[in-house]
Write a structure and sequence with these properties.
- By secondary structure, the protein is of the alpha/beta class.
- The protein is 33% helix and 18% strand.
- It has helices at 16-27, 70-73, 79-83, 110-118, 122-146, 156-161, 166-174, 177-184, 188-198, 213-224, 234-246, 290-293, 304-311, 350-361, 409-425, 444-450, 504-516; strands spanning 5-12, 32-35, 47-51, 54-57, 87-88, 94-97, 103-106, 228-229, 250-252, 257-263, 266-272, 277-286, 319-326, 343-347, 371-375, 390-397, 436-442, 488-490.
- Strands 1, 2, 9, 10, 11, 12 and 18 form a 7-stranded mixed beta sheet that branches.
- α8 (177-184) runs antiparallel to α9.
Amino acid sequence: MTQDLTADIVVAGAGHNALIAAAYLARAGKSVIVVDTRPIPGGGVATEEYLPGYFMDSCSTGHTIIQSNPVIKDDSLGLIRDHGLAYVDPDPVARVAFPDGEQIGMHLDPQATYDEFARFSTRDADRYFEMLEDWEQAKSAFSKANNTPVGWGPSLDALLDELPNGGVWRRRRALSAVDVIRHEFTEEHIQAFLLWEACQTFGSVDLPGSGVLPYSIMGGRQKRSWTIPLGGSGRLTDALVSVIENHGGQIFCNTNVSRLLLDDGRCVGIEATDGRQFHGREGVLSTIHVKHLIDMAPAEAWGDSFTYGVETYDIGIPLLAMFLVMNEVPTFAGLSPADTAVSSGLAQWPQRAVELVRDIRDRKPVTESAWTLVATPTLVDPARAPEGMHTVKVLVPVSHVAPYGAANWDDAKERFADEIVEYVSTAIPNVNSSTIEARIVKSPLDIERWNPHMINGCAHGGDKGVPFSGPLRPAPGWAGHVMPIPGLYQTGGTTHPGGSITGSPGRNAAMVMMKDLGLEFPG
């Protein structure tokens, strides 16, 4: 016989944003229950022992963006002070190879990055320094907008208008990343490098609304590198779980939510597929993907506007992941292992990258990678593997459909992975059968099976272009974390400001809920 459980707040989903919101609520004295379908909490912020002794980040690795969130910047939940979370800023920051064999390395010393750019164009190297200065002036406006619930303060456009070059920024953020890069930089290698960096959030860099990415990504990484948590991405999850449990909260994994519980039109809890019910006396917070959430209550409960917004919501660009065990540091042609960055990879020329991203969005089969990430966290965190060994994660964007000749991604993934390994070896020759001691390949189908929130292998919560950002995310009129069903709130990658490891949707949702509950939000 199943036993129903009750708390002040029930949270459906245990991604990092849901955990952040739950931690704030628990610290404020509310009893909290968190449920998640996976065997461990964290969603895309998880580190798992895929092979004995090898701890691999199953999704996210870099935590650069969240460094500007007060959760980390001000340690507002005590994650660093009290719960063991620690970060490292790797140097070199990045190394990227191009189709002609040339490479660019990025370093924490801005002058060293300048010198790398200047090998190709002193004009563009000078422009890069101007770019960093421009971002320093503008970043507070973007941070304030991202870390404030929609409708609670001035719009981003209003914040930008306060800048001396506010009009430039309003245009720039409305353009595509490709437009901005091509307008502001002229040399093809530098353009390709900047586009490779802009692609790191798996957005459609050719669509309007992505124009700030070259600035925000480069500005953040030039200042902090590709920041990673010591011990793995899952250490952020561990710290958040510790906060919640230390304040009396409970977390139930292996619990798949099947429907919302409604009483007189109000959401009062959730029901799991095993029949268990979890009741929230004061509210329910969801981080379930909106494409799934809408099926968990009768259609009339949502209303036509919200339903249309969810039906037209773009789930984003899928990815394929390879997890490698290597007995050597992946080493670029002509260089030493010390030149390898934790965040490395291969870039296409801008026009080819755009063509491939458009083919993916059009759901055409693709056999090339628009950009390729080769991440080796053991370079700075050797405890993730036995002595002398390395964990290497290779990420590539892929189409929603399998390559020609394959029935589906299950049929195609190993052959496709062979081709990607061969491609990577053109720039990093020692990525080969003699150095790779084990390989795990996760196709888009595998990724969705691992985490149903990542529909068709789209791991970033959905596209963040103009139709799906700010007050339009996840649906016009419903961007403030309050859902059409009273008592139900929403957070996670489908809400403002979107996916990646930012913590902003979680903190913003906590602010909204705590105000509604008459609680003071701590700074």
